[in-house]
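Form 7-S
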Amino acid sequence: MSLSESVGHSREFMLKAVERLEAGERASALAIELNLNRTIIYHWRDRFRANGAHALTSKRGRPRTPEVLAAEGVR
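Output:
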């Protein structure tokens, strides 16, 4: 597990990184600047493309119940 995976990042942090990547910045340059492995940035981008911004959440901890997801307006 890399340092960036164990630390966890906010949805806003991940979204800004993905937006910068989508705007044309190189993943390797972003990775150096943000102190991440570039494959993490690509993983975030793929999750964003598949399911939108709400997919950019930490997957750590207990899964949320359908009731909690409904209350948050997620699927």
